[in-house]
Amino acid sequence: MVKVMASGVFDILHPGHLHYLKQAKEMGDELVVVVACDDNVRRFKHEPVTSEEMRCTMVRSLKMVDEAYVGKEGDMFGIVQEISPDIIALGYDQSFDEEDLRVRLAERGLDVKVRRVGQCAEDLNGTRKIIQRIIEEHDRRIADEKDRNR
Question: Per the structure, how many domains does the chain have?
Fold first, then answer.
C-alpha cells in the first residue's frame, strides 16, 4: 500500500482542489489530506472563509479522499511523522521548493518522495479567483441597478 499525503487550505472547494486531489490519489493507494488549521491560514495566506472543521468535513467527504485531518500549528513535519506517507503530493501552485522539502524531510529521518501535480486548466481554479469573480459580479449588478434607477 502506497500512502500519499496532500495538504492545503481548501477554503471554498473548487475544480483546482478536485484536480489536485485526484492526481494525488493516482500516485498511490491511499490518500490522506491535511487541511491547514485556521491559525496557519491566517499567518501564511488570508482570513479563512470557512472554519477548519468545515473545510476538513468537506474534504473528507470527497470520493478520492480516504482520510482527512486538521493540521497542527507550528512544526509542519510533526503531522508528516504521524501520517507516515510514502509520497507527499504538492499542488502546482503551492510555494514549497521540492528539493528543499526533500532535504528537510531527510534531515528528520523521513524517507518520503515529493511529487508535484500538474496545473488545472479550469478558469476558476483558485479560491481568490472565485472571490474576485463574485466581487466583480456584485459590483456589476450594483452598477446596473443604479443605471436602471436613474
Answer: 1
Strand order in the sheet with 30-35: 67-70, 30-35, 3-8, 87-90, 113-116
Does some domain include residue 139?
no
List the grid coordinates of 4.
500519499
Segments forming the whole domain that contains residue 91: 3-120
Q: What angle do CA 54, 42, 64 make, to 5 degrees?
A: 40
Instruction: Tell me the pLDDT tens digit for each residue of 56-80.
Output: 999 999 999 999 999 988 778 889 9
pTM for the structure as a whole: 0.82
What is the C-alpha radius of gyration for the chain, rounded to an integer number of angstroms? Answer: 18
Q: What does the alpha-carbon distance between residue 29 and residue 87 come to, in Å, rounded to a whole number?
A: 11
